[in-house]
Amino acid sequence: xxxxxQDMSIDQLRTYVLEHREDTRAFKNLVDRLKTxxxxxxxxxxxxxEIIEVARTAIQERLAQKKAK
Length: 69
Fold this sequence. Notes:
Elements: H1 10-19, H2 24-36, H3 49-68
Helix pairs in contact: 1-2
């Protein structure tokens, strides 16, 4: 029986993908969901030391927010 990815939350689907890394269908479904949910943040490619530090700080803050949830 195939899992119903559309019935899973993004966190449940992420967990499933991590436990079933060979399931490309699940991975593609997760990527599609992440693209369309609007919660993703796109950062420009850092090209100077200052921008690299800003990007590093922003990523660390985003990860800290995710952990706090």
